[in-house]
């Protein structure tokens, strides 16, 4: 029962973290580092979930003090990524054939994935505090944490696995420009939501 609860709650919270999912999907379609993206996101989530489950009471005391710093850093990162998407949409530089990929150093991809995963204050409030608080009250906290981590694995593996099919739908310049425009708008909306959160 604890495993199922962790799986369901973990999936619902991870799916709701919009900026991370938007970035993962867009980068998975445009780049060749899908495995790196999935691994970094899964490891970040799993680490925060385990820390939250076993340190819920201590974290509830000091994490709120750091939330404003994470919020402003997250806003800056989201606006930077939104600007990049808007620039690609304006220049029409993202279009590619189905078999073509954009080569990016895996370390740069890993660093960006790490930043967008950890600079979102909702990650700490939802994944660490909420999941951790619920997990600490479970009959078997370890099974709850495993279930929540399994939810992260299922979601990110599905997201990066689905991206090649979506990429084929966006094989024209016009469609890619529309996609980049939508991504830029969504990232700006998330940044605005974070701003109202401060």
Automatic annotation (TrEMBL):
- Answer whether the UniProt record assigns the keyword Transmembrane to this protein: yes
Supply one GO CC term from the record. Answer: plasma membrane
Q: Name one Pfam family in it.
A: LysE
Q: How does it sit in the membrane?
A: Multi-pass membrane protein
Residue ranges annotated as transmembrane are 6-24, 36-57, 69-90, 111-137, 143-162, 174-195
| Protein name per Swiss-Prot or TrEMBL | LysE family transporter
Q: Which domain of life is it from?
A: Bacteria
Q: Which UniProt keywords apply?
A: Cell membrane, Membrane, Transmembrane, Transmembrane helix
Q: Which organism is it from?
A: Alteromonas pelagimontana
MF GO annotations: amino acid transmembrane transporter activity
**Matching PANTHER family:** ARGININE EXPORTER PROTEIN ARGO (PTHR30086), ARGININE EXPORTER PROTEIN ARGO-RELATED (PTHR30086:SF20)
Q: Where in the cell is it found?
A: Cell membrane
């Amino acid at each position: 029962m604890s495993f199922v609860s962790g799986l369901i709650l973990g999936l619902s919270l991870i799916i709701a973290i919009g900026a991370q999912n938007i970035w993962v999907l867009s980068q998975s379609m445009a780049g060749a580092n899908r495995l790196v993206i999935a691994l970094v996101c899964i490891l970040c989530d799993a680490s925060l979930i385990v820390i939250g489950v076993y340190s819920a009471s201590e974290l509830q005391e000091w994490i709120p003090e750091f939330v404003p710093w994470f919020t402003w850093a997250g806003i800056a990162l989201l606006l930077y990524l939104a600007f990049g998407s808007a620039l690609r949409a304006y220049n029409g530089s993202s279009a590619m054939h189905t078999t073509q990929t954009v080569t990016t150093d895996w370390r740069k991809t890993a660093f960006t994935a790490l930043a967008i995963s950890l600079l979102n204050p909702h990650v700490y409030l939802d994944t660490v505090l909420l999941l951790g608080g619920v997990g600490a009250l479970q009959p078997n906290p370890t099974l709850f944490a495993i279930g929540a981590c399994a939810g992260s694995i299922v979601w990110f593996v599905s997201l990066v696995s689905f991206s090649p099919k979506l990429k084929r739908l966006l094989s024209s310049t016009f469609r890619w420009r529309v996609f980049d425009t939508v991504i830029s708008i969504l990232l700006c909306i998330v940044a605005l939501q974070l701003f109202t959160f401060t």
